[in-house]
Amino acid sequence: MEKEMKVIIATVTLLLLTLLVVPINILAVVAGPQVSTTVFVDPLTIEGIMIGENVTVNINVSNVTDLYGWQAGITFNPDVLNCTGYYEGEFLERGADPELGTIWLNQTPPWDDTEGIVYFHGCCILGPVSGVSGSGQLGYLTFEVVGTGVSDLHLTDVILCDSKTERIPHEVVDSFTVSWGEVDFSVETISNLTGIWGESSSGLFNHTFSQPEKEISFDVITPYDNCYNVTIPAELLSGDLTILIDNVSKDYILTQNATHTSLYFTNSHSTHNIKIKGTTAIPEFPSFIILPLFMIATLLATIVYRRKHSLQR
Which CATH number among 3.90.1150.10, 2.40.10.220, 2.60.40.680, 3.90.25.10 corresponds to the domain 37-169? Predict the structure, then answer.
């Protein structure tokens, strides 16, 4: 029996070492269709940084024309991050009058580290000048890492306006991370969510993934009718997909490739819950671990069987 136990220990050790060296591919996010103006944070997700370290997050704009003023807020995971600052970026300063400059709009309080909310701040050029065109940094935030895990950064209350105080149509990039085993899957949403001056909240909130239910769920708050393009890794959720808005089925346009599926759909204003349900989802155990577990179970069953019969003799 002692010899058999040594065999078991050696076999299990070898299998565990095998699992440690199995290469794991992190799936890249397939971006949705691009429009002329896009607002996004860089990075979209913070993870793998030591507790106590400080990180900087940029709020960027791409391909904008005549930008005169903007506002935006952010939500984050308070178990991982604490906000330490929110500052004006360099973009609007390019076109500001040297004597008048810009005005930075603060909130009181500026953020809530218990709830994981940075309330919308904003910036506006002063004086009768044209807005700024191009791409660059609208603002930036600093965070202190206070815990381990993943923190996605979700933009809220985004508004862009031109020198005529008219709204600039734009798309907001959002990412939701599903950590499964040793793999992080990114679900990307591109929408035209727009806030209201001086009010909150608009954006995407409360993202969840349920493997037993085979669904992704999130809440949306918006004062205007909107459209969305949600890109999902096929390994995470696939099959016959259904979109439910407040538990009512919604039509969508489907595009897909070998690794990702994108769903485009529209939604009315107000507050809604959106669910994307599939018929297949990532298994509870990663595929590379199922065979070793089966081998271990078979080996243990064989040992128990032999021991039982040796005792009966």
Answer: 2.60.40.680
Compute CA 267 distance to the chain's CA centroid, rounded to the nearest angstrom: 20
Give the C-alpha separation, 151 to 80, whole Å: 6
pLDDT digit string (tens) for 120-145?
999 999 999 999 999 999 999 999 99
Report residue 42 as tokens: 């860089």
Q: Which CATH class is domain 190-282?
A: mainly beta
Residues 63-93 as b/e (b if ≥16 CB within 10 A, e otherwise) read ebebbbbbbbbbbbbbebbbbeebebbebbe
Domain ranges of the chain: 37-169, 190-282, 285-313
Q: CA–CA separation, 223 vs 203, rounded Å? A: 10
Which ranges of the chain does DSSP label H, i.e. alpha helix? 2-20, 287-312
What does the alpha-carbon distance between residue 237 and residue 278 come to, in Å, rounded to a whole number?
A: 6
Nearest Cα neighbor of 264 from 168, 186, 191, 210 is: 191
Of the pLDDT bands very low, low, confident and very high (cuts 50, 70, 90), residue 199 is: confident
> What pTM was computed for the model?
0.80
Q: Are 302 and 309 in contact (CB under 8 A)?
A: no
Q: What is the pLDDT of residues 210-251, one digit of tens each?
A: 999 999 999 999 999 999 999 999 999 999 999 999 999 999
